[in-house]
Amino acid sequence: MESVELIYKAIYILVIFGLTLLIATYSTYAERKVAAFIQDRVGPNRAGPFGLLQPIADAGKMFFKEEFIPAKSNRLLFIIGPGVAMIVACMSSAVIPFGDTLIIDGRTIYLQAIEVNIGMLYIFGVVSLGVYGLMIGGWASNNKFSLLGAIRAASQNISYELAMGLSIIAILMMTGSLSLREIAAQQEGFNWNIWYQPLGFIIFLTCAFAETNRTPFDLPECETELIGGYHTEYSSMKLGLYLFAEYINIFVASAVISTLYFGAYNFPFMENLRSAISDPVLANNVVTLLGVGVMFAKIFFFIFFFMWVRWTLPRFRYDQLMKLGWQILIPLSILNVILTGGGILLFDRVKDYLF
Predict the structure, then answer these.
(1) Torsion-angle region of residue 269: left (phi > 0), alpha (psi -120 to 50) or beta?
(2) What pLDDT is attached to residue 83?
(3) d(CA 190, CA 180)
(4) How far apart are CA 168 and CA 117, in angstroms?
(5) What pLDDT is stored for residue 276 in this prediction?
């Protein structure tokens, strides 16, 4: 019995891992198409129909380009840096529930690789490790531009994780759980957290841009100042791993935002659809598969939003970035926690008075 469940779980993990890599690969294509649309250009259109093979061509180019390691770099750490960034990025999606449950051969299969009751803490811990990949690569390159990019990445990560963590405290106060599955389950139907936490969502979204080093917070790899930042000295697939890790982080950030604030796999009238199908097993599986589609639709929307913002807003100055993090977002997130606590207390008092 346990061996069969382990096989199902292993298949699910492989599928999610493959989907993560596929989505990250074609996010590069989508990025270039979105940029082309905004700038009134065509974008990739030569490699395959509509340029759909362009990501494959880019991957082949990365694999076959010359491998270059600077003579005075720390060779071991120079190699380890991109691997750390990529591995940590892939680990982040382990606790995200991409759907509810499937019933196969009488067994209930949870569409989540790992269910832990501290799922958000797991994501925070793993994402915090990601900056080590940037720091190691920037320092090991023995290049002043790379080192400056790595220092910027570390300070930016520290600054914006505080506000992000405080925005999560408000969600914890409302749901009473750090389990992503439990948070998703409490948003059944159209009862999404975005209606109760609009300020927390704006804070979390802004911090997500900073954590993924995306414009307007892409100061660690600012081309106009630092050439390429922490990956200036990298070439071939090591550079590819850094670039790939960024898109995986965007995918994971979009999935977390969808889970915390937009109901995850829940959608309106799902219970009506479930009750309309007479066979309970079939009803459960149909609703679950539709929920998976809804979840990925939300994720793709936020991936598009990340790209839209990149090609719309200018880059911040570094002093503006730090001021926003410390003097604006942290006080706002503390205020959001106070307002949430006051709202919960007021709701409980009104409920006791009425009932």
Answers:
(1) left
(2) 87
(3) 17
(4) 15
(5) 85
pLDDT in tens, 91-133: 888 889 998 888 887 788 888 888 888 888 898 888 888 888 8
Residue 101 and residue 110 in contact, taking contact as beta carbons nearer than 8 Å: yes
Residue 48's DSSP bridge partners are none
H helix intervals, 141-177 = 144-175
Residue pLDDT, tens place only, 272-314: 888 888 888 888 889 999 999 999 999 999 999 999 998 888 8
- Torsion, Cα 104 106 112 114, to 10 degrees, reads -130
Q: How far apart are CA 31 and CA 38, in angstroms?
A: 11
Question: Which has more pLDDT, 148 or 220?
Answer: 148
CB atoms within 10 A of CB 305: 15
Question: What was the pLDDT predicted at 1?
Answer: 47
Q: Chain-centre distance of CA 298, in angstroms? A: 12
Q: What are phi and psi of 119, to 5 degrees?
A: -55, -40
Q: Give the position of tokens 């539709």.
A: 290
pTM: 0.91
Show me where the domains of the chain are located: 2-354
Question: What's the CA gap between 198 and 215, in Å, rounded?
Answer: 22
Residues 6 or more apart whose CB falls under 8 angstroms from that of 322 comprise 155, 159
Helix axes 75-91, 236-261, angle to 10 degrees: 30
pLDDT at 224 over 70: no
For every residue of 203-269, DSSP letters joined together read HHHHHHHHHTT-TTS-GGG-HHHHTTGGGTT--HHHHHHHHHHHHHHHHHHHHHHHHHHS-TT--TT
